[in-house]
Design brief:
alpha/beta; five-stranded mixed sheet; 5 strands; globular
Length: 208
């Protein structure tokens, strides 16, 4: 099974396209089993990139940081109701924010949750929960241990063969397809285990 962990900026157009590329390759390569996750990444780069893309001054940095954080918590809350529903929630919210130019609000988050079939009461509770915050922090810790700094970066594993993980910077459909066709994927660990073992000699990490 191929495991794809795509680190994204929830407000990034490029990341929005990357997410669709992951689902496209999952559909196109039906004979290959995929397990994929979209992982929100918030750091100084993500915040500055968002400011730049939306033409905002640095005076908006705190507001953008808070917005990215809340959208990430909403996504985590949606994921508690299943990975497929969670990813559907994120993509629909991004469609409203990026394509439809909607302004983020609790009302918008609620509308999207309802549209994708989430249990609304559970979602509204979970988006403010300590569990959602803990899940978000675990993602940031994983990114730090894997040395993922920029969004639109994918960490890819093949659970059938031990030894290597592949980090794809500037991820897109073609880069992943090339990686699969060239047989560059190998390890059988989840990303957290892989991160824990980065310093051990028998594990390698390729960056492409």
């Amino acid at each position: 099974m191929i495991e794809i962990h795509l680190f994204v900026n929830p407000l990034g157009m490029k990341c929005y396209r990357c997410e669709q590329d992951v689902m496209r390759i999952d559909h196109d390569l039906a004979k290959t089993k995929f397990n994929y996750q979209f992982i929100p990444l918030i750091n100084l780069y993500t915040i500055q990139d968002t400011l730049h893309r939306y033409g905002l001054s640095t005076s908006h940095q705190q507001r953008v940081s808070e917005l990215l954080y809340q959208i990430s918590l909403d996504f985590k809350a949606a994921l508690f109701q299943g990975g497929k529903r969670g990813r559907k929630y994120l993509l629909q919210l991004q469609t409203e924010l990026i394509n439809q130019k909607q302004t983020y609000s609790l009302e918008l988050a609620t509308m999207v949750a309802n549209k994708v079939g989430l249990d609304l009461e559970m979602f509204l509770t979970d988006r403010k929960s300590a569990l959602a915050r803990k899940a978000f922090l675990a993602d940031q810790k994983m990114a730090n241990e894997l040395k993922v700094i920029r969004t639109a970066t994918a960490v890819v594993f093949d659970t059938n063969e031990p030894e290597y993980g592949v980090m794809i910077n500037d991820f897109d459909y073609d880069s992943l397809l090339e990686c699969l066709q060239n047989g560059q994927l190998q390890p059988n660990q989840d990303p957290q285990t892989f991160a824990d073992n980065l310093g051990k000699q028998h594990h390698s990490f390729r960056i492409i």
